[in-house]
Protein backbone atom coordinates (compact mmCIF):
# COMPACT_ATOMS: atom_id res chain seq x y z
CA UNK A 1 0.00 0.00 0.00
CA UNK A 2 1.51 3.31 -1.07
CA UNK A 3 -0.20 6.20 0.67
CA UNK A 4 0.95 8.58 -2.04
CA UNK A 5 -1.35 7.04 -4.66
CA UNK A 6 -5.08 7.17 -3.96
CA UNK A 7 -6.47 4.07 -2.28
CA UNK A 8 -9.63 2.20 -3.23
CA UNK A 9 -11.56 2.08 0.00
CA UNK A 10 -14.63 0.10 1.04
CA UNK A 11 -16.48 1.54 4.04
CA UNK A 12 -18.37 -1.01 6.10
CA UNK A 13 -20.85 0.92 8.22
CA UNK A 14 -22.76 4.21 7.92
CA UNK A 15 -22.91 5.62 11.45
CA UNK A 16 -21.21 8.66 13.01
CA UNK A 17 -17.65 7.31 12.83
CA UNK A 18 -18.05 5.76 9.36
CA UNK A 19 -19.43 9.07 8.09
CA UNK A 20 -16.50 11.13 9.38
CA UNK A 21 -13.90 8.65 8.01
CA UNK A 22 -15.64 8.48 4.62
CA UNK A 23 -15.58 12.26 4.32
CA UNK A 24 -11.97 12.61 5.40
CA UNK A 25 -10.71 9.81 3.10
CA UNK A 26 -12.60 11.41 0.24
CA UNK A 27 -11.17 14.86 1.00
CA UNK A 28 -7.67 13.38 1.20
CA UNK A 29 -8.08 12.23 -2.43
CA UNK A 30 -8.81 8.57 -1.85
CA UNK A 31 -11.49 6.75 -3.82
CA UNK A 32 -14.48 5.48 -1.89
CA UNK A 33 -15.53 2.46 -3.94
CA UNK A 34 -18.41 1.21 -1.78
CA UNK A 35 -20.37 1.94 1.34
CA UNK A 36 -21.94 -1.10 2.98
CA UNK A 37 -24.81 -0.94 5.44
CA UNK A 38 -27.42 -3.57 6.31
CA UNK A 39 -29.86 -0.72 5.91
CA UNK A 40 -29.87 0.17 2.19
CA UNK A 41 -31.15 3.72 2.83
CA UNK A 42 -28.32 4.46 5.25
CA UNK A 43 -25.77 3.08 2.80
CA UNK A 44 -27.21 5.21 -0.01
CA UNK A 45 -27.28 8.40 2.08
CA UNK A 46 -23.57 8.16 2.86
CA UNK A 47 -22.48 6.73 -0.52
CA UNK A 48 -24.09 9.66 -2.36
CA UNK A 49 -21.85 12.13 -0.53
CA UNK A 50 -18.74 10.62 -2.12
CA UNK A 51 -20.13 9.14 -5.37
CA UNK A 52 -19.59 5.64 -4.02
CA UNK A 53 -21.66 2.54 -4.66
CA UNK A 54 -24.13 1.75 -1.89
CA UNK A 55 -24.42 -1.93 -1.02
CA UNK A 56 -26.40 -3.78 1.62
CA UNK A 57 -25.16 -7.35 1.08
CA UNK A 58 -21.72 -8.72 1.93
CA UNK A 59 -21.75 -10.92 -1.20
CA UNK A 60 -21.33 -7.90 -3.51
CA UNK A 61 -18.32 -6.50 -1.67
CA UNK A 62 -15.66 -5.28 -4.12
CA UNK A 63 -12.76 -7.66 -3.45
CA UNK A 64 -10.13 -5.46 -5.09
CA UNK A 65 -10.04 -2.60 -2.56
CA UNK A 66 -6.83 -1.58 -0.80
CA UNK A 67 -8.58 -0.90 2.47
CA UNK A 68 -11.75 -2.20 4.15
CA UNK A 69 -12.78 0.05 7.02
CA UNK A 70 -15.08 -1.67 9.54
CA UNK A 71 -16.89 1.09 11.37
CA UNK A 72 -19.99 -0.52 12.80
CA UNK A 73 -21.50 -1.14 16.22
CA UNK A 74 -19.01 -3.01 18.40
CA UNK A 75 -21.39 -5.89 18.99
CA UNK A 76 -21.93 -6.43 15.24
CA UNK A 77 -18.21 -6.49 14.43
CA UNK A 78 -17.34 -10.14 15.28
CA UNK A 79 -20.11 -11.67 13.17
CA UNK A 80 -19.57 -9.28 10.25
CA UNK A 81 -15.81 -9.97 10.20
CA UNK A 82 -16.64 -13.71 10.09
CA UNK A 83 -19.07 -13.22 7.17
CA UNK A 84 -16.68 -11.06 5.20
CA UNK A 85 -15.53 -12.64 1.89
CA UNK A 86 -11.84 -13.18 1.26
CA UNK A 87 -10.13 -10.11 -0.13
CA UNK A 88 -6.64 -8.81 -0.50
CA UNK A 89 -6.15 -5.30 0.99
CA UNK A 90 -6.01 -4.24 4.61
CA UNK A 91 -8.85 -4.84 7.06
CA UNK A 92 -9.09 -2.13 9.68
CA UNK A 93 -11.60 -1.49 12.44
CA UNK A 94 -12.19 1.72 14.39
CA UNK A 95 -13.48 0.36 17.69
CA UNK A 96 -11.92 1.31 21.01
CA UNK A 97 -12.97 -1.72 22.99
CA UNK A 98 -12.37 -4.48 20.42
CA UNK A 99 -9.09 -6.35 20.11
CA UNK A 100 -7.29 -6.49 16.80
CA UNK A 101 -7.72 -10.31 17.02
CA UNK A 102 -11.31 -10.07 15.80
CA UNK A 103 -9.85 -9.24 12.35
CA UNK A 104 -6.60 -11.22 12.39
CA UNK A 105 -8.67 -14.37 13.05
CA UNK A 106 -10.09 -13.99 9.54
CA UNK A 107 -7.56 -11.99 7.56
CA UNK A 108 -3.83 -11.72 7.31
CA UNK A 109 -3.22 -7.99 7.12
CA UNK A 110 -5.28 -6.25 9.79
CA UNK A 111 -5.20 -3.26 12.04
CA UNK A 112 -7.03 -0.62 14.01
CA UNK A 113 -7.45 3.14 13.65
CA UNK A 114 -9.28 4.31 16.77
CA UNK A 115 -10.37 7.96 16.79
CA UNK A 116 -10.45 9.14 20.40
CA UNK A 117 -13.11 11.75 19.85
CA UNK A 118 -16.88 12.16 20.12
CA UNK A 119 -18.18 12.26 16.55
CA UNK A 120 -21.74 13.19 15.65
CA UNK A 121 -22.84 13.03 12.03
CA UNK A 122 -24.48 16.43 12.30
CA UNK A 123 -21.45 18.22 13.72
CA UNK A 124 -18.42 19.07 11.61
CA UNK A 125 -15.07 18.62 13.28
CA UNK A 126 -11.53 19.45 12.22
CA UNK A 127 -10.36 15.87 11.76
CA UNK A 128 -6.71 16.96 11.77
CA UNK A 129 -7.08 17.50 15.54
CA UNK A 130 -8.61 14.08 16.26
CA UNK A 131 -6.13 11.78 18.05
CA UNK A 132 -5.86 8.49 16.13
CA UNK A 133 -4.61 5.40 17.98
CA UNK A 134 -3.07 2.78 15.69
CA UNK A 135 -2.43 -0.93 15.98
CA UNK A 136 -1.22 -3.27 13.22
CA UNK A 137 -0.91 -7.05 13.23
CA UNK A 138 2.69 -6.72 11.95
CA UNK A 139 5.25 -3.96 12.12
CA UNK A 140 4.72 -3.49 8.36
CA UNK A 141 0.94 -3.05 8.70
CA UNK A 142 1.43 -0.70 11.62
CA UNK A 143 3.78 1.46 9.54
CA UNK A 144 1.28 1.61 6.67
CA UNK A 145 -1.53 2.59 9.01
CA UNK A 146 0.54 5.24 10.76
CA UNK A 147 1.36 6.74 7.35
CA UNK A 148 -2.32 6.71 6.30
CA UNK A 149 -3.48 8.14 9.64
CA UNK A 150 -0.85 10.88 9.48
CA UNK A 151 -2.45 12.15 6.25
CA UNK A 152 -5.63 12.76 8.21
CA UNK A 153 -4.55 13.87 11.67
CA UNK A 154 -1.66 15.61 13.36
CA UNK A 155 -2.04 13.36 16.41
CA UNK A 156 -1.19 9.74 15.61
CA UNK A 157 -0.15 7.29 18.33
CA UNK A 158 0.51 3.57 18.53
CA UNK A 159 -0.97 1.54 21.38
CA UNK A 160 -1.93 -2.06 22.04
CA UNK A 161 -5.46 -3.48 22.32
CA UNK A 162 -5.57 -3.40 26.12
CA UNK A 163 -4.43 0.22 26.30
CA UNK A 164 -6.97 1.11 23.64
CA UNK A 165 -9.72 -0.56 25.67
CA UNK A 166 -8.65 1.48 28.71
CA UNK A 167 -8.70 4.66 26.61
CA UNK A 168 -12.20 3.81 25.42
CA UNK A 169 -13.35 3.20 28.98
CA UNK A 170 -11.85 6.43 30.27
CA UNK A 171 -13.51 8.22 27.35
CA UNK A 172 -16.88 6.88 28.52
CA UNK A 173 -16.30 8.62 31.86
CA UNK A 174 -14.74 11.83 30.49
CA UNK A 175 -17.19 12.28 27.59
CA UNK A 176 -20.34 10.12 27.65
CA UNK A 177 -20.99 10.38 31.38
CA UNK A 178 -19.96 14.03 31.44
CA UNK A 179 -22.38 14.81 28.64
CA UNK A 180 -25.14 13.04 30.56
CA UNK A 181 -24.38 15.31 33.54
CA UNK A 182 -24.96 18.27 31.22
CA UNK A 183 -28.22 16.67 30.10
CA UNK A 184 -29.43 16.27 33.71
CA UNK A 185 -28.46 19.88 34.45
CA UNK A 186 -30.41 21.07 31.40
CA UNK A 187 -33.48 19.13 32.53
CA UNK A 188 -33.28 20.76 35.98
CA UNK A 189 -32.93 24.26 34.51
CA UNK A 190 -36.04 23.65 32.42
CA UNK A 191 -37.97 22.31 35.41
CA UNK A 192 -37.19 25.40 37.49
CA UNK A 193 -37.81 27.86 34.68
CA UNK A 194 -34.20 29.00 34.41
CA UNK A 195 -32.51 30.02 31.15
CA UNK A 196 -31.18 26.96 29.27
CA UNK A 197 -27.69 28.44 28.93
CA UNK A 198 -27.23 29.45 32.59
CA UNK A 199 -24.46 26.92 33.15
CA UNK A 200 -22.29 27.75 30.15
CA UNK A 201 -19.64 29.79 32.04
CA UNK A 202 -19.46 27.10 34.73
CA UNK A 203 -18.99 24.31 32.20
CA UNK A 204 -16.38 26.34 30.31
CA UNK A 205 -14.38 26.95 33.51
CA UNK A 206 -14.66 23.31 34.62
CA UNK A 207 -13.04 22.34 31.30
CA UNK A 208 -10.49 25.15 31.45
CA UNK A 209 -9.44 23.98 34.92
CA UNK A 210 -8.90 20.48 33.53
CA UNK A 211 -6.27 21.83 31.16
CA UNK A 212 -4.35 23.43 34.04
CA UNK A 213 -4.68 21.26 37.11
CA UNK A 214 -5.31 17.64 38.07
CA UNK A 215 -9.04 16.94 38.38
CA UNK A 216 -8.58 15.69 41.94
CA UNK A 217 -7.15 19.10 42.90
CA UNK A 218 -9.86 20.98 40.99
CA UNK A 219 -12.73 19.24 42.81
CA UNK A 220 -15.18 21.62 44.50
CA UNK A 221 -18.77 21.33 45.75
CA UNK A 222 -20.68 19.94 48.73
CA UNK A 223 -19.47 16.33 48.35
CA UNK A 224 -15.81 17.42 48.21
CA UNK A 225 -16.37 19.43 51.42
CA UNK A 226 -18.36 16.64 53.06
CA UNK A 227 -21.23 19.10 53.47
CA UNK A 228 -24.06 16.69 54.30
CA UNK A 229 -26.64 19.38 54.93
CA UNK A 230 -26.37 20.76 51.39
CA UNK A 231 -26.37 17.26 49.94
CA UNK A 232 -29.59 16.51 51.85
CA UNK A 233 -31.16 19.66 50.42
CA UNK A 234 -30.16 18.63 46.92
CA UNK A 235 -31.65 15.18 47.45
CA UNK A 236 -34.87 16.81 48.62
CA UNK A 237 -35.01 18.94 45.46
CA UNK A 238 -34.74 15.67 43.50
CA UNK A 239 -37.67 14.08 45.38
CA UNK A 240 -39.63 13.56 42.15
CA UNK A 241 -36.60 12.03 40.41
CA UNK A 242 -35.63 8.86 42.32
CA UNK A 243 -33.15 7.86 39.59
CA UNK A 244 -31.34 11.18 39.81
CA UNK A 245 -31.28 10.79 43.60
CA UNK A 246 -29.47 7.45 43.15
CA UNK A 247 -26.95 9.06 40.80
CA UNK A 248 -26.48 12.00 43.14
CA UNK A 249 -25.89 9.71 46.14
CA UNK A 250 -23.55 7.34 44.28
CA UNK A 251 -21.36 10.12 42.91
CA UNK A 252 -21.33 12.19 46.09
CA UNK A 253 -20.21 9.21 48.16
CA UNK A 254 -17.47 8.45 45.63
CA UNK A 255 -16.26 12.07 45.62
CA UNK A 256 -16.25 12.29 49.42
CA UNK A 257 -14.27 9.06 49.72
CA UNK A 258 -11.83 10.04 46.97
CA UNK A 259 -11.15 13.45 48.53
CA UNK A 260 -10.65 11.94 52.00
CA UNK A 261 -8.19 9.35 50.66
CA UNK A 262 -6.38 11.97 48.61
CA UNK A 263 -6.01 14.32 51.58
CA UNK A 264 -4.64 11.43 53.67
CA UNK A 265 -2.12 10.58 50.92
CA UNK A 266 -0.98 14.20 50.75
CA UNK A 267 -0.51 14.37 54.52
CA UNK A 268 1.74 11.29 54.40
CA UNK A 269 3.87 12.63 51.54
CA UNK B 1 -25.36 52.38 50.58
CA UNK B 2 -23.81 54.37 47.77
CA UNK B 3 -21.76 52.11 45.51
CA UNK B 4 -19.78 55.08 44.24
CA UNK B 5 -18.05 55.63 47.59
CA UNK B 6 -15.88 52.80 48.90
CA UNK B 7 -17.63 50.46 51.29
CA UNK B 8 -16.27 49.13 54.58
CA UNK B 9 -16.57 45.40 54.24
CA UNK B 10 -16.25 42.59 56.75
CA UNK B 11 -15.56 39.17 55.21
CA UNK B 12 -16.81 36.23 57.24
CA UNK B 13 -15.01 33.16 55.96
CA UNK B 14 -11.65 32.44 54.32
CA UNK B 15 -12.32 29.64 51.82
CA UNK B 16 -12.30 29.65 48.01
CA UNK B 17 -15.34 31.87 47.54
CA UNK B 18 -14.44 34.28 50.38
CA UNK B 19 -10.96 34.64 48.90
CA UNK B 20 -12.21 35.55 45.44
CA UNK B 21 -14.76 38.06 46.79
CA UNK B 22 -12.18 39.65 49.08
CA UNK B 23 -9.79 40.16 46.20
CA UNK B 24 -12.42 41.54 43.85
CA UNK B 25 -13.89 43.95 46.44
CA UNK B 26 -10.37 45.14 47.21
CA UNK B 27 -9.57 45.63 43.51
CA UNK B 28 -12.84 47.53 43.03
CA UNK B 29 -11.59 50.05 45.61
CA UNK B 30 -13.59 48.93 48.61
CA UNK B 31 -12.05 48.74 52.06
CA UNK B 32 -11.75 45.30 53.61
CA UNK B 33 -11.95 46.09 57.33
CA UNK B 34 -11.85 42.57 58.72
CA UNK B 35 -11.56 38.93 57.74
CA UNK B 36 -13.12 36.50 60.19
CA UNK B 37 -12.30 32.82 60.34
CA UNK B 38 -12.59 30.39 63.25
CA UNK B 39 -9.09 29.37 62.25
CA UNK B 40 -6.84 32.36 63.08
CA UNK B 41 -4.15 31.29 60.58
CA UNK B 42 -6.65 31.15 57.73
CA UNK B 43 -8.03 34.57 58.69
CA UNK B 44 -4.52 36.02 58.79
CA UNK B 45 -3.49 34.55 55.44
CA UNK B 46 -6.42 36.17 53.64
CA UNK B 47 -6.44 39.40 55.67
CA UNK B 48 -2.78 40.05 54.82
CA UNK B 49 -3.56 40.14 51.11
CA UNK B 50 -5.77 43.19 51.55
CA UNK B 51 -4.29 44.80 54.67
CA UNK B 52 -7.38 43.86 56.64
CA UNK B 53 -7.60 42.92 60.30
CA UNK B 54 -7.73 39.18 60.91
CA UNK B 55 -10.19 38.08 63.60
CA UNK B 56 -11.20 34.69 64.88
CA UNK B 57 -13.93 35.64 67.37
CA UNK B 58 -17.36 37.03 66.58
CA UNK B 59 -17.25 39.32 69.63
CA UNK B 60 -14.64 41.58 67.98
CA UNK B 61 -16.59 42.05 64.75
CA UNK B 62 -16.47 45.68 63.59
CA UNK B 63 -20.08 46.78 63.90
CA UNK B 64 -19.71 49.84 61.66
CA UNK B 65 -19.21 48.06 58.32
CA UNK B 66 -21.49 48.72 55.36
CA UNK B 67 -21.44 45.09 54.25
CA UNK B 68 -20.95 41.76 56.00
CA UNK B 69 -20.23 38.99 53.51
CA UNK B 70 -20.94 35.50 54.87
CA UNK B 71 -18.93 33.13 52.74
CA UNK B 72 -18.54 30.00 54.83
CA UNK B 73 -19.50 26.33 54.59
CA UNK B 74 -23.25 26.04 54.07
CA UNK B 75 -23.71 23.94 57.18
CA UNK B 76 -21.96 26.52 59.38
CA UNK B 77 -24.06 29.44 58.11
CA UNK B 78 -27.21 29.07 60.27
CA UNK B 79 -25.36 28.96 63.59
CA UNK B 80 -22.93 31.73 62.64
CA UNK B 81 -25.77 34.02 61.51
CA UNK B 82 -27.44 33.37 64.88
CA UNK B 83 -24.23 34.24 66.80
CA UNK B 84 -23.57 37.38 64.79
CA UNK B 85 -23.75 40.58 66.90
CA UNK B 86 -26.17 43.32 65.93
CA UNK B 87 -24.81 45.63 63.30
CA UNK B 88 -26.13 48.15 60.86
CA UNK B 89 -24.99 47.48 57.27
CA UNK B 90 -26.11 44.79 54.86
CA UNK B 91 -25.75 41.08 55.60
CA UNK B 92 -25.17 39.02 52.48
CA UNK B 93 -24.42 35.36 51.98
CA UNK B 94 -22.99 33.66 48.88
CA UNK B 95 -24.49 30.18 49.20
CA UNK B 96 -26.47 28.58 46.38
CA UNK B 97 -28.51 26.20 48.45
CA UNK B 98 -29.39 28.41 51.42
CA UNK B 99 -32.51 30.56 51.57
CA UNK B 100 -32.26 34.27 52.24
CA UNK B 101 -34.38 33.60 55.36
CA UNK B 102 -31.33 32.37 57.27
CA UNK B 103 -30.19 36.02 57.37
CA UNK B 104 -33.53 37.85 57.46
CA UNK B 105 -34.36 35.89 60.62
CA UNK B 106 -31.60 37.82 62.41
CA UNK B 107 -31.12 41.04 60.50
CA UNK B 108 -33.29 43.54 58.70
CA UNK B 109 -31.33 44.27 55.54
CA UNK B 110 -30.19 41.03 54.01
CA UNK B 111 -29.47 39.47 50.68
CA UNK B 112 -27.59 36.96 48.59
CA UNK B 113 -24.88 37.22 45.94
CA UNK B 114 -24.42 33.72 44.55
CA UNK B 115 -21.51 33.26 42.13
CA UNK B 116 -22.40 30.43 39.74
CA UNK B 117 -18.83 29.42 39.11
CA UNK B 118 -16.26 26.93 40.39
CA UNK B 119 -13.72 28.95 42.35
CA UNK B 120 -10.42 27.55 43.60
CA UNK B 121 -8.14 29.72 45.69
CA UNK B 122 -5.13 28.70 43.63
CA UNK B 123 -6.67 29.55 40.25
CA UNK B 124 -7.17 33.12 39.06
CA UNK B 125 -10.38 33.82 37.25
CA UNK B 126 -11.70 36.86 35.42
CA UNK B 127 -14.42 37.71 37.91
CA UNK B 128 -16.14 40.00 35.40
CA UNK B 129 -17.31 36.83 33.59
CA UNK B 130 -18.71 35.12 36.71
CA UNK B 131 -22.53 35.10 36.68
CA UNK B 132 -23.83 36.58 39.95
CA UNK B 133 -27.36 35.70 41.08
CA UNK B 134 -28.88 38.28 43.41
CA UNK B 135 -31.67 38.22 45.96
CA UNK B 136 -32.59 40.98 48.38
CA UNK B 137 -35.09 40.96 51.25
CA UNK B 138 -36.65 44.18 49.91
CA UNK B 139 -36.71 45.78 46.49
CA UNK B 140 -34.36 48.45 47.90
CA UNK B 141 -31.80 45.88 49.11
CA UNK B 142 -32.03 44.04 45.83
CA UNK B 143 -31.31 47.24 43.91
CA UNK B 144 -28.27 47.98 46.09
CA UNK B 145 -26.92 44.48 45.62
CA UNK B 146 -27.48 44.52 41.86
CA UNK B 147 -25.52 47.80 41.69
CA UNK B 148 -22.69 46.38 43.80
CA UNK B 149 -22.60 43.12 41.82
CA UNK B 150 -22.57 45.02 38.53
CA UNK B 151 -19.30 46.68 39.57
CA UNK B 152 -17.74 43.22 39.71
CA UNK B 153 -19.37 41.22 36.92
CA UNK B 154 -20.97 41.76 33.55
CA UNK B 155 -23.49 38.98 34.26
CA UNK B 156 -25.85 39.92 37.08
CA UNK B 157 -29.26 38.25 37.44
CA UNK B 158 -32.03 38.28 40.02
CA UNK B 159 -33.61 35.00 41.12
CA UNK B 160 -35.47 33.68 44.15
CA UNK B 161 -34.17 31.21 46.74
CA UNK B 162 -35.81 28.16 45.15
CA UNK B 163 -34.43 28.93 41.70
CA UNK B 164 -31.00 29.54 43.23
CA UNK B 165 -31.16 26.15 44.97
CA UNK B 166 -32.01 24.52 41.62
CA UNK B 167 -29.09 26.33 39.97
CA UNK B 168 -26.79 25.10 42.72
CA UNK B 169 -28.05 21.54 42.27
CA UNK B 170 -27.66 21.63 38.49
CA UNK B 171 -24.15 23.03 39.01
CA UNK B 172 -23.32 19.98 41.12
CA UNK B 173 -24.15 17.80 38.11
CA UNK B 174 -22.59 20.02 35.43
CA UNK B 175 -19.41 20.84 37.36
CA UNK B 176 -18.70 18.76 40.48
CA UNK B 177 -19.82 15.42 39.04
CA UNK B 178 -18.30 16.23 35.66
CA UNK B 179 -14.97 17.02 37.28
CA UNK B 180 -15.14 13.72 39.16
CA UNK B 181 -15.59 11.95 35.80
CA UNK B 182 -12.36 13.61 34.68
CA UNK B 183 -10.71 12.43 37.87
CA UNK B 184 -11.79 8.81 37.26
CA UNK B 185 -10.56 9.01 33.66
CA UNK B 186 -7.18 10.32 34.86
CA UNK B 187 -6.90 7.45 37.34
CA UNK B 188 -7.58 4.94 34.55
CA UNK B 189 -5.00 6.51 32.22
CA UNK B 190 -2.41 6.25 34.98
CA UNK B 191 -3.33 2.64 35.71
CA UNK B 192 -2.87 1.64 32.05
CA UNK B 193 0.29 3.64 31.55
CA UNK B 194 -1.23 6.12 29.11
CA UNK B 195 -0.25 9.80 28.87
CA UNK B 196 -2.14 11.89 31.43
CA UNK B 197 -3.36 14.39 28.81
CA UNK B 198 -4.69 11.82 26.30
CA UNK B 199 -8.29 12.91 26.82
CA UNK B 200 -7.84 16.65 26.40
CA UNK B 201 -9.18 16.88 22.81
CA UNK B 202 -12.15 14.70 23.75
CA UNK B 203 -13.01 16.82 26.77
CA UNK B 204 -12.62 20.02 24.74
CA UNK B 205 -14.99 18.74 22.05
CA UNK B 206 -17.53 17.49 24.61
CA UNK B 207 -17.67 21.03 26.00
CA UNK B 208 -17.69 22.63 22.54
CA UNK B 209 -20.65 20.44 21.58
CA UNK B 210 -22.51 21.67 24.67
CA UNK B 211 -22.32 25.24 23.38
CA UNK B 212 -23.90 24.22 20.06
CA UNK B 213 -26.40 21.45 20.67
CA UNK B 214 -28.64 20.09 23.42
CA UNK B 215 -26.79 17.55 25.56
CA UNK B 216 -29.46 14.93 24.89
CA UNK B 217 -28.73 15.24 21.14
CA UNK B 218 -24.95 15.20 21.66
CA UNK B 219 -24.99 11.92 23.61
CA UNK B 220 -22.70 9.23 22.13
CA UNK B 221 -21.10 6.05 23.50
CA UNK B 222 -22.05 2.45 24.25
CA UNK B 223 -24.86 3.27 26.70
CA UNK B 224 -26.52 5.66 24.23
CA UNK B 225 -26.37 2.90 21.58
CA UNK B 226 -27.52 0.22 24.02
CA UNK B 227 -24.33 -1.71 23.22
CA UNK B 228 -24.33 -4.25 26.08
CA UNK B 229 -21.30 -6.14 24.86
CA UNK B 230 -19.04 -3.08 25.10
CA UNK B 231 -20.52 -2.14 28.46
CA UNK B 232 -19.75 -5.66 29.75
CA UNK B 233 -16.16 -5.29 28.56
CA UNK B 234 -15.85 -1.97 30.35
CA UNK B 235 -17.23 -3.49 33.53
CA UNK B 236 -14.67 -6.29 33.24
CA UNK B 237 -11.85 -3.74 32.91
CA UNK B 238 -13.14 -2.22 36.16
CA UNK B 239 -13.06 -5.57 38.01
CA UNK B 240 -10.63 -4.23 40.61
CA UNK B 241 -12.75 -1.09 41.15
CA UNK B 242 -16.17 -2.21 42.43
CA UNK B 243 -17.16 1.39 43.22
CA UNK B 244 -16.41 2.51 39.68
CA UNK B 245 -18.42 -0.47 38.41
CA UNK B 246 -21.41 0.79 40.41
CA UNK B 247 -21.02 4.28 38.95
CA UNK B 248 -20.60 2.87 35.45
CA UNK B 249 -23.74 0.73 35.77
CA UNK B 250 -25.85 3.48 37.34
CA UNK B 251 -24.96 6.07 34.70
CA UNK B 252 -25.16 3.67 31.75
CA UNK B 253 -28.65 2.55 32.75
CA UNK B 254 -29.73 6.16 33.14
CA UNK B 255 -28.32 7.14 29.72
CA UNK B 256 -29.92 4.15 27.99
CA UNK B 257 -33.31 4.93 29.52
CA UNK B 258 -33.05 8.65 28.76
CA UNK B 259 -32.12 8.02 25.12
CA UNK B 260 -34.94 5.48 24.68
CA UNK B 261 -37.50 7.89 26.15
CA UNK B 262 -36.15 10.76 24.10
CA UNK B 263 -36.31 8.78 20.84
CA UNK B 264 -39.91 7.79 21.66
CA UNK B 265 -40.82 11.44 22.30
CA UNK B 266 -39.27 12.49 19.01
CA UNK B 267 -41.19 9.82 17.09
CA UNK B 268 -44.46 11.11 18.56
CA UNK B 269 -43.70 14.73 17.71
Automatic annotation (TrEMBL), chains A, B:
DUF2520 domain: residues covered: 131-254
| Record-annotated Pyrroline-5-carboxylate reductase catalytic N-terminal domain positions | 8-84
Record-linked SUPFAM superfamilies? 6-phosphogluconate dehydrogenase C-terminal domain-like (SSF48179), NAD(P)-binding Rossmann-fold domains (SSF51735)
Taxonomically, the superkingdom here is Bacteria
One Pfam family cited in the UniProt record for this chain: DUF2520
By its UniProt entry, which InterPro entries does this protein fall under?
6-PGluconate_DH-like_C_sf (IPR008927), DUF2520 (IPR018931), NAD(P)-bd_dom_sf (IPR036291), P5C_Rdtase_cat_N (IPR028939), TM1727-like_C_sf (IPR037108)
Name recorded for this polypeptide: Uncharacterized conserved protein
Species whose genome carries this gene: Porphyromonas macacae
